[in-house]
Amino acid sequence: MPVDVMIVDDSAAIRKILHRVLLQADVPLGKVIEAGDGVEALEKLKSTKVGLILSDINMPNMDGLALLGALKAQESTRDVPVIMVTTEGSSSRVMEAVNLGASGYVRKPFTAEQIKEKLAGLF
Amino acid sequence: MTHDKLVAYIRTSTRDVFTTMLGLELTDGEPFIKEEAPAPTDGVLALIGLAGRWAGSGTFSCTAPTAMRLASQLLMQSYDAIDEEVLDAVGEITNMVIGNVKTALEEELGPMGLSIPTVIYGRNFTTRSIGHSKWTVVPFHLDGEVIEVHLCLAPSKDPASLRMPKDHPAAVLSIE
Q: Taking the model in full, what pTM does it have?
């Protein structure tokens, strides 16, 4: 069954790269929905269900950790796997994301293979 | 934090971003310390702020043709003019370069915040820093073109805050 995926990043360049990697990955991909920050992501998730979220951390309006906390607090999104794709590489930030319920963590710069490996672990 | 350490962090981070995301190899230029305001320049410049126990700014700059080439490599499509996508690509490259320098710095200096990048494209503009901090400048060469990463860092007057301090060294812009 195809999986709809949401990409959350304030950089259109990164959204485009991740979209391309998803198309190349060995996953049953459905729709790809994009959001520029946590606020836009939550708004879109009111009317759309997704099976996976790839999210940056450092974004305007609502950052990725606040988004992750909000997703895990809502019953409708609690079980959606969230992979953080970010330049935030310190161990404290990684632990914070893991404690909030992130399913994976990929540091920028990343290779397509690193993203595909994380996806393979989920599907 | 010494100039040599900053140079090493910037070189490692910039090379990593270029090889991993762009498939490009850079050649190192000679790093230096800059105290005075730079002369007016042309091209694309991205600025990003750092805040924490130490705070400051980082910049990434290159010519317009190089910016188009970097965006082409990153997004796998050709660009023959500076547009929103090229500026966004340069902003994201800067975010990754300075973001990874920040991660290395945090090992010694504690947690730091990173601002959203601002990207400027124009002719005959000048940047200068508020305050009296020195800038570490690390040039790289890419097929005859020069790319520069600048970093200015100083102990914070508000060490508890990860927000961008108002009275801290920061890059400002003037258009001639």
A: 0.90
